[in-house]
Amino acid sequence: MSVIIWVSFFVVLVLSYYVNYYLPHGPSYPTGEIICQNDDRGPCREQYVEDMRNLNIPDWAKIFRLWGIPLLMGLAFAGIVVSIKNKEE
C-alpha cells in the first residue's frame, strides 16, 4: 500500500511541476485583500489571484494548478503514516 501512495506522490509532483512551469499562465488580478506575513507584523501586500477562466489548458491541468500542493501534502502524510504502520508490523 505504501508503494502505491509514494508512486502517486511522485506522479502528482511531476504533473504539478509540469503544469506550473511549462503550461501558460493567466493574468493575475488583485482581490482587494491585504495579506501580512509574520503574524500580521509585516511585510504586508495585496493578494493577487490567477484568472484561469479563459486559459487554454486542459481541465486536469487547472485542477492540478489549484489543488496540486494540498494533494501532495496529503499523499506525503499518508505515505509516512502507512510506512510507519508497515514498519511496526
Which helices and strands appear, and what pairs or packs with what?
Elements: H1 2-22, E1 28-36, E2 44-50, H2 59-88
Antiparallel strand pairs: 1-2
Helix pairs in contact: 1-2
Could you please describe the fold and organization of this structure?
- With 89 residues, the chain is an alpha+beta fold.
- It has one domain (2-88).
- It is 57% helix and 18% strand.
- The chain is built from two helices and two strands, in the order αββα.
- It has helices at 2-22, 59-88; strands at residues 28-36, 44-50.
- It has a two-stranded antiparallel ribbon with strand order 1-2.
- Strand 1 (28-36) and strand 2 form a beta hairpin.
- It starts with a helix and ends with a helix.
- The model has no long low-confidence stretch (mean pLDDT 86).
Structural key phrases:
single chain; 89 residues; alpha+beta; two-stranded antiparallel sheet; 2 helices
